[in-house]
Amino acid sequence: MYRELLQTPMEKRDSLFKERLLAPFKEKFDRQHITFDEHVPFNVMTVIGMMHKLPQSLKSSDITLIDQLDQKFWKDIQDAFDKAIETFEAANITPKVSTYTLTALLGDEQLPMMQINENYSGDGGIPGYILLSIVPNAYTLNRISSAVAHECNHNIRYQFIEWGKGPLKEMIVSEGLAENFAEKLYGTANLGPWVTKHDMSILNDLIKPKLKAHLDIDNMFEAMPYLYGDEITEMQQGKPVGLPYAAGYMCGYYLVKYYLKKTGISIEAATLKTADEILAAASDFWQEITR
């Protein structure tokens, strides 16, 4: 698709991109209240443009990146997807969705949202749909399988658990489950920067107390700054809350790890637990010093 876009006149690129790459995800975008109407300022291309190379910005020099989205790249994605689904099935968890739409979009390393995530990311919260974002290089290509596992965990969870209005506790727990699942399949070395960027003193002294005090937030828009941290919040023109990058992700990862150790429950079974169940069983996590 990207090779074809390079050969397409500028005035036709956006429509081709939307038709071929984004239209298969229309149900996902509709559920996220993201319109395809180009006359609405906040539309699907606006969202894609926050992290990715837009069709009209593609240059012939980008072929060196495009060429890295090769057969091995797609095989790694397919293998990781199959492995994730089979891991749940082996734990007697049968997904409700049988057909999945998945692709990877070319990230723009000049964009702050891409840079802060170390040039790879994913979106798998709507059952049946997974979007990966990547600036291909040795580091990100090595982590694409872990990213697939992370997003598959979200995808399975929300086939069984209701998202609601997007409460903070659900966001924290779901990200912790996803990254613990990815770690099980691909090891600690492939944990994402959203977990590894800060040391334990920041988690214990800043992140945990502040998140614990705001666990009653019950809507996504108020919760997002606590999940993503100030840098991403400011990139999205939001109001900072005094937390570092991906604070909720890091906290969720250690919260779920604490829960798994305390209860002995598998990560697959935990994925189908509600946030309230996990928080109740791990209530003393907030007072413990995480090491």
Report helical residue fraction.
Answer: 40-55%
How many distinct domains?
Answer: 2
Low-confidence stretches: none
Helix-strand makeup class: mainly alpha
Could you tell me the number of beta strands? 3
How many helices does DSSP assign?
A: 16
The pLDDT mean sits at 97
Sheet with most strands: strand arrangement: 1-3-2
In N-to-C order, the SSE pattern is HHHHHHEHEEHHHHHHHHH
- Taking the alpha carbons of the first and last residues, their distance comes to 46 Å
Strand content is 5-15%
Large-scale geometry: globular
Question: What is the subunit arrangement here?
Answer: single chain
Question: How large is the radius of gyration?
Answer: 19 Å
The main sheet comes to:
3 strands, mixed
Protein name: Metallopeptidase
What is the topology?
Blueprint: H1 2-6, H2 10-22, H3 26-31, H4 44-48, H5 63-66, H6 71-90, E1 101-106, H7 112-116, E2 120-123, E3 129-134, H8 138-157, H9 168-186, H10 193-196, H11 200-213, H12 220-228, H13 230-235, H14 247-263, H15 267-270, H16 275-281
Parallel strand pairs: 1-3
Antiparallel strand pairs: 2-3
Protein name: Metallopeptidase
Domain DUF2268: 73-279
Pfam family, one: DUF2268
Task: Write structural notes for this entry.
With 291 residues, this protein is mostly helical. It has two domains: 1-160, no CATH class; 162-291, no CATH class. 54% of the residues lie in helices and 5% in strands. The chain has 16 helices and three strands. Strands 1-3-2 form a three-stranded mixed sheet, covered by helices on one side. α8 (138-157) packs across α9 (168-186) and α9 crosses α16 (275-281). The protein starts with a helix and ends in a 10-residue tail after the last helix.
